[in-house]
C-alpha cells in the first residue's frame, strides 16, 4: 500500500512540473547599422618569398680531359696496334658524384678515334658484367676485376681509369694493362677542368 501511495504522490508532483516553456513571441536581435571606415593607408599584400635559384650544374668536358691521355698512350712503346682493348668503367674516388657512364663513353670515343685498337663494344661489356655478377655502378672496381672482365671478353689489353680528388680539383689516371700478364704497360695522369 505504501508503494501505491508513493507512486501516486510522485505522479502528482511530476504532473505539476511545467514541461513546456511558455510560448513567448521571439523577437530578432536588434540590428545596428555600421558605416564602413575607409583605411587611411593603402593595404599592401604581404611580401612573397622568392624561391632561390638552384646552383648551376657544372658540366665536365670529358673529351678534353681524356683526349691528351689517349694520345699519349697511342705513342707509348710496347703497344701492338690492332689488338682488342677493353675500356673498363671509370672508378670514382672523389668525394662527389658525376656520371661514370659519360666519362667512360668519352674514353671509348677517344680510343676509337685513335684507330690504334679494336675496342670491345659497350653492349658486350655490359652483358659480360651481368654474366660475371658485376654491377654497372660498381664502386669497388679493381684492377683484378678489370683483368678478369678482359679475359672473359677475350681482350688483349684493359684500360683502367680512376678519377680522384675533390669537387674543386679532380684528376684522372689511366693505366693500360696486358690481360694475360696483368703488367701495366702504360700509365698517365691529367687534371680535369671544370
Give a written overview of the molecule.
Regulator of peptidoglycan synthesis that is essential for the function of penicillin-binding protein 1B (PBP1b). The chain is α/β, with parallel strands linked by helices and 194 residues long. It has 5 helices and 6 strands, in the order H-H-E-E-H-E-H-H-E-E-E. Strands 1, 2, 3, 4, 5 and 6 form a 6-stranded mixed sheet that branches. Helix 2 runs parallel beside helix 3. It is elongated and about 125 Å long. The model has no long low-confidence stretch (mean pLDDT 82).
Could you give a short account of the major beta sheet?
A: 6 strands, mixed
Helix content: 25-40%
* Termini gap: 109 Å
What fraction strand? 15-25%
Separate helix tally: 5
Shape verdict = elongated
Task: Tell me, rounded to a whole number, the average pLDDT.
Answer: 82
The SSE string, one letter per element, is HHEEHEHHEEE
Strand segment count? 6
Provide the structure class.
Answer: alpha/beta
Question: What descriptive keywords fit this protein?
Answer:
6 strands; palmitate; lipoprotein; alpha/beta; peptidoglycan synthesis; enzyme regulator activity; 194 residues; 6-stranded mixed sheet; membrane; 33% helix; elongated; single chain; 5 helices
